[in-house]
Structures are given as C-alpha cells and as structure tokens.
Specification:
The complex is a heterodimer of chains A (468) and B (301). Chain A is an alpha+beta fold and 468 residues long. Chain B is globular and about 60 Å long. The chains are: A alpha+beta (468), B alpha/beta (301).
Chain lengths: 468, 301
C-alpha cells in the first residue's frame, strides 16, 4: 500500500523546505522537494549599481554570504575586463576558505549531528524518531562536541572578519580581490586561530564523523543519486601555485572530462515559464511565467550539464580531485564535508605563506556602457554561477544558479529527476511513521533553501519556484 | 534585584552589555529569575541573524540556551521536523513567552510566498505565524533589518510584498534591532536586559539606546580625516570614506566602538564605506552603496 509523507518544515537547513514523498511497501517511489520562500533577488538587482551587487547578493544567504560576494566580484571583473593581482586573489580566497570552515563545522554539528546523536539536555533537541545507535559514551562525547564546536565556527568567522570586516555579509571581498591590505598582525591573527580550528577538526570533527559512520554503515548504501559529479573548480588557476584543490571537471559513469561552461543549460520543460525554447543558456533571462503550460508542475528551473543532472558539493570535489574514492552515498557526503574542512585548513596555510603585507590591490573602477560578465566558482555547497549584464551604468540583467538549484532541481524532458529527488528514490523507510532516513539523506546535501521559492495560488496545487 | 549593586566599572556599551548578561546568568543560576521560553521565528530572509547569534561570545549560544532562555522553537536548530516541529511551536504558545523574529513578513498571496511549515494539513504562512504569536507574546524582538522594516526582502520592486513585523502587528509594542545582520551583542544584551530589568530604554523608533544611541560618524576613528577634508578615492584607502558613499553620517549604532566577530574589525576598518545596514530604510534608502564620485557635477538632472 502506498503512503504519502510530507515533512514541512525540514528543519536544520538554511531556509525553508518541504519534502513530499510517496512510499510503497516501505520504499520511496516518488519525491518532490520544494523550497518555501520567495524574495526575487534577480528582479531586485535590475536597475541597481553594478558595484552594489557584491554586497547585495550576499543577502541571498546568511550562512554562505561570502560565496555570493565572490561570484559577484568575479562576474564584475569579467564584465570590466579586470585581472586581479595574485595578492588580491590570495586574500579573497582566504576569506572564502574561512567561510568553508564556518559552514562545514556548523553544518556537521548543528545541522547533521542531531540526526544521529541523542541529546538529553534540552527540549530544543527532542527528536521525532528513535533510531539512535551510538553507545552512550560516544553519544555523550559527540553531543558535548556540538557545543564545543560553536567556538570554532565562531572563530572561523573571526578569521573572516580580520580580512572581511564582518560576517555574515562581509565587506572585504570586492572587484580586484579585497579592500584591505594584509599586515603581519592580521597574518598571525589568522594563523593563530587556524591552528586552533585545525586541531578541532583533526581531533574531534573527523573522528566524530567516522564514529557515526561506523554505527550507521547502512547510510553508505543509500542516498546515492545519479552519480554525476560537477565542479567549477576551487582554489585553482593560481599563476605560481597552480591548483591547490580541484580544477573544473565533470564526471559521469562513463567518463571524466574538463568542464565546459557552454554545456550548461537551464531547462524549463516542466517549469511554469514561457520562452522561445525550453532550454536556455544561463545568461538568458527566462522570467515570463506561464502557469497553463502543458506538462509543467513546478517553478523550479532545472540546470543541466550536457543534458544531465549533476551533483555538486564537497563529495563531488573530493572525488574529482582524486582525494576520495569510497563511493557516493548519504554517509560519504557527510564524511566528505569533514575531510574537506581539513583540506581547507591546509589551503589557508599555503595561501597565508604567500601574503606580502601592505599591497593595495584596489583601483577606481569605470563602468563600460554595455557589457556582460559571469562569475563561476565552487563554494561550500558546490557550483555557484552569477551572470550579469550592464547597460547605461546599471544592471540590466542578473541570473544566478546556486549549488542547491543543481542538487534540488526538478525533472526534465529527458525524464531525469533532480539530483536529491533521485537520491531518495528506492530508499527503504524502516518506520514510515517516524522516518529518519529522508531528513538524513537530504541534509547530506546541505540544502540552502534561502535560495529556493514557493508559490501557491488559491485553489491550485502547490508549486515550487526557483528563488533567491 | 535586592542586594545586587552594579559597580560602575566602565560605562562603555561593551562593558554594560557584558555586565547585564553575566548578572542575568548569575540570577538565573540562583533561581532569582526563571528561564523564560523563547520562540525564535525565522521568516522571509536569509537566516543570517541566527548565524550571527551563533557567533555570540559573552554569552555564547550554549550559555544562552542552558542558562538564560528555554529555546522552544527555531527552524535552523531544532531536532524535530515536520508536524512535530510545528506542534512544539503551537504548544509553546500556551505559556508566557518571548518572541524573537528575523526576516520580513511576506504579504503577497495572503502570505503564501513564505511558508514556515504545515499545520493541521494546511500551509502555515509567516504572516499567520507572526500575527498569531505576536498577539500572544509577552515581549517581541524584531531582529535584523528584514524584521524591523522589511530590509533586503522588501527591496524594490519587492516581489514578495515583504514588510517589517510592526506593519502586521500595528498595536504591539516591540523592540527593534536593525542590522544586516544583527550583532550578537545587540540581541543578547537586549535579551539580558529583558530578563533582568524588563524592556530597555528605547528611542522613538523602539531601538535600545544602549546600542543605537549614537551616529557612527560621531565616533568614527576616521573622523579627523573628514574634519580636515581628506577623502578616500577608492576602496582600500585609509582615510575618510564619505565621498565613496559612506552612510556613517546617517546610521545610528555602535559599530565604531563595538566592532564585529570577537570585536576584531568592522566595515570602515576594512577600508569600505558603511552601507547603513543598521539604519531604517536599508537597503534602498542607502543605495548606491559604493560610488566613486559622489561630489561630481551633475548635469541635466
């Protein structure tokens, strides 16, 4: 007998999300993931000063704001034909690394750990299910680390603020790299905090994630998805340092190849949008709604690469960089986030060693009357792209594809589901009245639904929309 | 508060906020004050204020949770999900509680642009939750720019028709803590004051005077450059950022003395203009954030 499970809200994510699952004989047979807030950033940006986009787009997301400042700065550099100095890139990338650390520590301890570890102390942590398997001593240890971790995610933001002014919503990332100049004091300030965070990751976070994986080994076998992986590249293309992490790559079951941005499409076959064609380049504006469109069931556009859905994020990056080969699953994704945090601490260390104090990388920038630009960068949750057009010194178009749009996209004309939807299909649900599996698998993707939207029409079916 | 005398050690905002929170903690531990339930409602926004609150240092989140308030509901942090999460929200409403709200209230389609959960099989909108909880709360804190006046969620052309919390609760008294995001001290210091002495003294726009009393420009360490007419021409310059569009002269908050993230830096310290994120009207009234020449001769305007 089939049964419908609706979880709304899916808590412990950034933003609001609803999940609608059909199970048959205790197995997931169909899934819809829906974002639950709409603000319309792409519309808000039109008509604003292009320089403001760097600070404005950060407000898309409170947990990954620096990511948007970086994509936006890169898009503007592309549009203004500015090549940042290496010192500017290093400092900006250190800010980005700090955000990775803040994000991964918070996502693991504050968002993921309560799925697997039972907390006694506080009603905030009362769980809905009873699938808690850790022995008491490790359960107690990891639940204490939940609180211990707060210091380290806070310190990651402190490092970020040393260069970025404040966090969330930093001021330091800008065209040309960064607005401040490094000093010896700043370098040692960051290096000293980095030592503390590195010890926490080595001694607590990584052992904790492996401890959890040991008792929940079945999660290595569920939540796989299509297995297509994509990265725009991260901490790469330095003139002297080369690639510190990963180059732009895509992999499918058949092959691994260099990423080619011309193969990105946004499909709208099943989305309530009207356009000349149902597949568009990401810089082409598709905003004309059409709710009577045949076949359409959602407002979410479906980003595709070479016509296929792809997974983005820490696991994709680790596998594509050759640093991980255990597999693709809910648990592998969670482990990858902790291992990536470790890798990021090493990257900061290398970048810090390159810093020359007192270099001012800023200039007075002029805007061309007519120009376009794009900024593609891998951020905490995966591939982030900003595409902008400038006309008469104003933004005339701004399109964004966030990592969570890749992972939580809808289906397409080839019959492919979204990546996270596919990851849930086939999952055995032990107790349909208290399903622990759905939240665990979805959180393994670290959904950021501050970037997703929802439209209801009175008397009509719930629709999902791509939102910022 | 018998027997509690605050030694007037230091009258800086930082010292006052720290004293308030530590005294509140002591009194809760002694059982003088009872831990009050706190409902933290996230509405239409980026959930950046809760992230900022996790950056709290004195007290930190663990202290806040274990010793100051009983946090009954928080979408970003609670273990429960789905119906059971909403049940907790409804249950908490039956007792006396403090309500903190971040994010704007989306009015479009009767609030359906921001669904915070599902209740009795129907979508629970941010609008409905804000009204329902706001009417019953003993105290209300509007946390961050979107809650205090709509903020970025209400930026032109405001596709979700977002408004600040006061607009849907016109008759309710609320403390407003503008900022994008709020500084953890502004929130936790206000909360401590509430628990210890009741609502803090506020200005005519309901901002606590202990944090929002003074214009940034009046305490800016770069003020001497302004007074001598030495102005930055680009970001990264270490002089007065006024001509790049700095909103310090219209923004009333204590960033110059408090600073951010462990009190290590702030936007002007980072050689960028203040964008007025803690002032009503942000962002549209503060745009453009960055202009390379605000004193140019304007023709044909």
């Amino acid at each position: 007998m089939s049964k419908r499970i609706v979880i709304n809200p899916l808590t412990r994510i950034s933003g609001f999300m609803e999940i609608d699952v059909i199970i048959d004989q205790n197995k997931v047979v169909d899934v819809k993931t829906k974002g639950n807030l709409f603000r319309g950033f792409e519309q808000m940006l039109v008509g604003r000063s292009p320089f403001d986009a760097v600070y404005f787009t950060q407000r898309i997301c409170g947990i990954c704001s620096a990511a948007h400042s970086i994509a936006s700065s890169r898009a503007l550099e592309d549009a203004l034909h500015i090549e940042p100095m290496e010192q500017g890139k290093y400092l900006r990338d250190i800010i980005h690394c700090c955000e990775f650390l803040q994000n991964h520590i918070r996502h693991f301890y504050q968002y993921t750990v309560p799925d697997y570890v039972k907390f006694e102390q506080n009603s905030l942590f009362q769980s809905d299910h009873d699938d808690f398997r850790l022995p008491k001593n490790s359960n107690d240890r990891i639940s204490q680390h939940y609180f211990d971790s707060l210091k380290y995610s806070r310190l990651a933001h402190e490092m970020l603020a040393v260069l970025g002014g404040k966090a969330p919503h930093n001021h330091g990332v800008f065209i040309g790299g960064i607005t401040t100049q490094a000093t010896a004091e700043k370098v040692v300030h960051i290096d000293s905090i980095l030592g503390e965070i590195t010890r926490f990751i080595d001694e607590k976070m990584i052992p904790d994630v492996y401890e959890i994986s040991h008792f929940y080994a079945d999660y290595f076998r569920i939540g796989r998805g299509y297995g297509n992986l994509l990265t725009y590249g991260a901490f790469n293309h330095y003139k002297e340092l080369g690639t510190l992490y990963v180059d732009p790559l895509v992999s499918t079951m058949e092959s691994v190849e260099a990423f080619d941005e011309s193969k990105i499409q946004e499909k709208i076959d099943y989305s309530y949008f009207k356009s000349v064609t149902d597949s568009n380049k990401p810089n082409e504006e598709v905003t004309e709604p059409d709710m009577d469109k045949e076949k359409a069931y959602s407002w979410v556009k479906a980003p595709r690469y070479n016509s296929r859905p792809f997974e983005v994020g820490p696991l994709a990056r680790l596998i594509l960089s050759g640093a991980y080969n255990n597999g693709i699953s809910a648990m592998d994704r969670t482990i990858a986030r902790a291992l990536e945090a470790k890798k990021i601490t090493r990257i900061i260390k290398i970048l810090l060693q390159q810093i020359i104090p007192g270099v001012d990388v800023q200039k007075k920038y002029e805007l061309p009357e007519l120009t376009t630009g794009r900024g593609l960068v891998d951020t905490t949750r995966g591939a982030l792209g900003h595409w902008l057009k400038i006309r008469d010194n104003k933004i005339s178009s701004y399109q964004i594809i966030t990592p969570s749009t890749w992972d939580f996209s809808t289906r397409d004309d080839n019959g492919f589901r979204g990546t996270a939807e596919e990851a849930l299909v086939g999952t055995p649900i032990q107790n349909p009245d208290k399903p622990a599996e759905i939240g665990r698998i979805l959180r393994s993707f670290d959904p950021c639904m501050s970037c997703a939207t929802h439209v209801y029409r009175p008397g009509k079916q719930v629709k999902t929309i791509k939102v910022f | 508060m018998k027997g509690q005398i605050l030694v007037p050690k230091s009258l800086t905002n930082e010292a006052i906020a720290e004293r308030l929170t530590s005294t509140a903690l002591k009194n809760i531990k002694k059982g003088i004050i009872k831990k009050k339930p706190l409902i933290y409602l996230e509405l239409n926004g980026c959930s950046g204020n809760i992230i900022s609150l996790l950056n709290g240092q004195n007290p930190d989140f663990e202290y806040t949770l274990n010793s100051m308030v009983d946090l009954c509901y928080c979408n970003s942090l609670m273990a429960a999900e789905g119906d059971r999460a909403i049940e907790k929200l409804i249950k908490a409403m039956n007792e006396e509680f403090i309500l903190a709200v971040e994010g704007a209230v989306a009015l479009k389609n009767n609030g359906l642009y921001n669904i915070i959960g599902s209740w009795q099989g129907k979508p629970l909108t941010g609008l409905h939750a804000a009204k329902m909880l706001g009417e019953r709360a003993s105290h209300i804190l509007a946390v961050g720019a979107c809650a205090t006046h709509g903020g970025v969620s209400a930026a032109k052309p405001n596709p979700s028709q977002s408004v600040g919390l006061q607009q849907v609760l016109p008759d309710k008294n609320m403390i407003k803590l503008p900022g994008c995001p709020v500084h953890p001290d502004w929130f936790l210091g206000t909360l401590a004051h509430l628990l210890l002495y009741g609502e803090p003294e506020t200005d005519n726009l309901n901002r606590p005077l202990m944090f929002y009393s003074t214009i940034i420009h009046d305490r800016c360490p770069r003020r001497p450059f302004f007074d001598r007419g030495i102005f930055a021409e680009k970001l990264g310059d270490q002089t007065c950022l006024f001509k790049l569009g700095c909103r310090g002269p219209v923004t009333r908050v204590d960033c110059p003395t408090r600073q951010w993230n462990g009190h290590v830096n702030w936007p002007i310290g980072d050689n960028t203009p203040c964008i007025g994120c803690a002032q009503f009207g942000f962002p549209d009234a503060m745009a453009p954030f960055i202009s390379y020449d605000t004193t140019r001769v304007v023709k044909n305007e």
